[in-house]
Amino acid sequence: MKEVLLDADRVLAGYDAVARMYPFVPSLSHWRAWEYAAYQRYRIAGSVLDLGCGDGQYFRLLWPDVRDVTGVDASEPVIELARRSGVYTRVHHAFAHELPVADASADAVFANCSLEHMDHLDQVLAEIRRCLVPGGTLLCSVVTDRFLSWSVLPMLVREAGGEALARQALDQFIAYHHLVNPLTVGQWQRRFTEAGFTVEEHVPILPLYNSGLFLLADGAWHVKQGDGELGDSLYRAFSANPGFTAAFRLIVEGLLRMETDWRTGSGAVFAVRKAH
């Protein structure tokens, strides 16, 4: 497996691209910036299956020239957004371990930040392999075990309120994200290999300092506040400040200058291929 490292210029270019979509949600623009930078190494074409498609807007940003796209998602409200997006030729409301898609019908499968949330991972990978043509590509981003071990909010809660509250904060974080597969890079590689794929490349994303800010911002955003989340109040405050998006870019730039180990991240992008 070839390891490919990003650089600061690519990440900042990624931020410039995605910040137009998420200008006032800093954790989302931060994470998506790294994914965008990694995905720029690759091209997908032909018939594409977008697994965990969401509303389709990030797919269109990444792959504006891909037109034969089938979207799959398990969330009915999200599926309605996907159907209205104009991105997909077909949209299925289905679980990834039971895909209503014909054998060898996809040239590529794209799974952006979705596999870590999926129950029955081995069945999901088997379904992806079934749907791909021989030699077809799976391109995906996932979280790693560092997504939990580097989580800042539980650390702060531990210092303020003790171990029990810290565990509660971490459990709530895991439950909110339905994080069932926070695997190491090596474990992800083994799962792909055991499912009949050849792992070609791995791109680490969000090393230590970038992960620290992302995980703190994401954890704080989803803290319950009344009938909503703290993020609702933060969004109103950030969107009222016309300089916010550019200023947050400077924060990301500063974090990039601090990184000393780009080989370990709380996320990873994998390019794998179905064996013939």
TrEMBL record:
<dbReference type="GO" id="GO:0032259">
    <property type="term" value="P:methylation"/>
</dbReference>
<dbReference type="GO" id="GO:0043770">
    <property type="term" value="F:demethylmenaquinone methyltransferase activity"/>
</dbReference>
<dbReference type="InterPro" id="IPR013216">
    <property type="entry name" value="Methyltransf_11"/>
</dbReference>
<keyword id="KW-0489">Methyltransferase</keyword>
<dbReference type="GO" id="GO:0008757">
    <property type="term" value="F:S-adenosylmethionine-dependent methyltransferase activity"/>
</dbReference>
<keyword id="KW-0808">Transferase</keyword>
<protein>
    <submittedName>
        <fullName>2-methoxy-6-polyprenyl-1,4-benzoquinol methylase, mitochondrial</fullName>
        <ecNumber>2.1.1.163</ecNumber>
    </submittedName>
</protein>
<dbReference type="InterPro" id="IPR029063">
    <property type="entry name" value="SAM-dependent_MTases_sf"/>
</dbReference>
<feature type="domain" description="Methyltransferase type 11">
    <location>
        <begin position="49"/>
        <end position="140"/>
    </location>
</feature>
<dbReference type="Pfam" id="PF08241">
    <property type="entry name" value="Methyltransf_11"/>
</dbReference>
